[in-house]
Write a structure and sequence with these properties.
Strand order of the largest sheet: 1-2-3
Radius of gyration: 21 Å
Number of helices: 9
Number of strands: 3
Oligomer: single chain
Largest sheet: 3 strands, antiparallel
Helix content: 25-40%
């Protein structure tokens, strides 16, 4: 019998959910470094070689095919690699820190976050898709606590959504619910580029997704969907009676000892935000 796509990603196996939290944290820490284009090896390998050649504690960081880097000062070598990466990948800003056994090798910020706003090491990042791992971790923690099950119907909490009686929490987490991705919606793309810092309400994002033709019935296929996770966030709020930002802070971020991570609905960050590739526009 063909495997049901909704069963593939999120399983109910006890003992694996805490491991997912650890995996989420590894992603949040950016290990290994990867660009949006999937080219993770050159920059990471080059920096590893630069450190290894200048620091005795970095001996294990050996590469099968060493990449030539300037000899001498490792900080200068790493900065040269970083500047080259900015040119190669078209980055407008970069924040970088390298430590070996707790000893700082280099901390630097390059470029401008926005025009006229130099990047600084104190800036924060939007963590983007890492938040999906946070939300799925929150879901599984609630399953562990016996509050819900993965196969509970969405209609229990959001009955007015189309097909909610045929969609489960598992399908939302697996992105097999069939709700189209609002990020691919042409009207959303136009609105975003017209005003990148607009604070979208969850209902607005869901409406963009629902205005797009459905690709498949719930549970019959898979498609990457931010809409599924906005809906899942709304469901988790209804289940617990708490806001999603408060839930994530209490159950995921604080227990994980990530003191600089925070959940913020408004597009504002402490010490400003580093935006390495976002459009240079602001809401008036």
């Amino acid at each position: 019998m063909p495997e049901n796509p909704s069963q593939r990603v999120i399983s109910a196996g006890a003992g694996s959910r805490r491991g997912l939290l650890k995996a989420s944290l590894a992603g949040a820490l950016g290990l290994p470094f990867a660009t949006p284009w999937g080219d993770s090896v050159p920059v990471q390998a080059a920096i590893s070689v630069a450190i290894r050649d200048a620091h005795p504690l970095a001996a294990p960081l050996r590469q099968a095919t060493p990449i030539a880097t300037p000899s001498g000062d490792p900080a200068a070598a790493i900065e040269a690699i970083a500047r080259d990466a900015m040119t190669t990948y078209g980055l407008r800003a970069m924040i970088l820190q390298v430590q070996i056994a707790g000893e700082g090798i280099v901390t630097l910020a390059l470029g401008e976050s926005m025009t006229g706003v130099p990047a600084t090491p104190e800036m924060h990042f939007r963590n983007g898709a890492v938040a999906i791992s946070y939300v799925s971790t929150l879901l599984l923690l609630l399953v562990d606590d016996g509050v819900i099950t993965l196969d509970d119907s969405l209609s229990n909490w959001l009955p007015d959504l189309p097909d909610s009686d045929g969609v489960t929490l598992r399908m939302l987490a697996n992105m097999t619910a069939g709700y189209p991705d609002y990020v691919q919606n042409a009207a959303f793309i136009d609105a975003y580029y017209a005003d990148p810092f607009w604070q979208w309400a969850p209902e607005e994002l869901i409406d963009f997704g629902l205005s797009t033709p459905r690709l498949f019935a719930p549970g019959t296929n898979w498609d990457y969907s931010h809409t599924d996770y906005v809906i899942l966030g709304r469901a988790l709020e209804a289940i617990t009676g708490q806001t999603l930002d408060a839930l994530l802070q209490e159950k995921v971020l604080t227990p994980s000892v990530l003191p600089t991570q925070s959940v913020r609905r408004p597009p504002r960050f402490p010490n400003r935000c580093c935006m390495p590739s976002a459009p240079n526009a602001a809401r008036s």
